[in-house]
Specification:
alpha/beta; six-stranded parallel beta sheet; 5 helices; 39% helix
Length: 163
């Protein structure tokens, strides 16, 4: 089994969340690859059983909420229709402003992955963090809990596959 973590992390908070998730998802029962979305190869995506995707929720100059970061939007748009059939996925995001109205990036990612045929196997993680400040303990614990829950779901997928 192969798990792919595809992310767009331009800020320290999102980078730290990626490190937390990656550290917990490492397991001898599956291969884990982690890529910035700009480096992910289609062959890696097509051979992965689980795709975990995440980025920051972006706010444009006119305070318009973008569905995801532009690099994540490009990554998702380049995936061929049906690529997720028979595969599983999960999403996460960080955001810096609780005044943002509309969907979080994680919710938008889940919608796009579902359209591509992926089955969402774990509820999204969306963290409200402070720009240019260290993550609070509560954020670290929520990211750890997300990753542990996701790891359990991945193990369930692994062991439910027909031999």
């Amino acid at each position: 089994m192969r798990v792919l973590l595809a992310f767009d992390a331009v800020d320290d908070a999102t980078k730290r969340i990626v490190r937390i998730i990656t550290g917990i998802l490492k397991d001898t029962r599956w291969r884990l690859d982690s890529y910035d979305v700009s480096e992910a190869e289609m062959a890696d995506i097509e051979t992965s059983d689980v795709l975990v995707a995440g980025c920051s929720t972006e706010v444009a100059v006119r305070e318009e909420v973008l569905p995801t970061s532009p690099p994540m939007a490009d990554f998702l748009a380049e995936l061929p229709p049906g690529v997720g059939e028979g595969r599983h996925a999960a999403a996460f995001d960080t955001r810096f402003d609780y005044h943002i109205e509309g969907r979080s990036a994680a919710a938008s990612i889940e919608i796009e992955l579902s359209k591509l045929g992926y089955r969402i196997i774990h509820p999204a993680l969306s963290l409200l963090v402070e720009r240019d400040k260290p993550l609070k303990v509560v954020h670290v614990k929520r990211a750890q809990n997300f990753a542990r829950g996701l790891k359990g779901k991945i193990a369930g997928v692994l062991f439910s596959k027909p031999v």
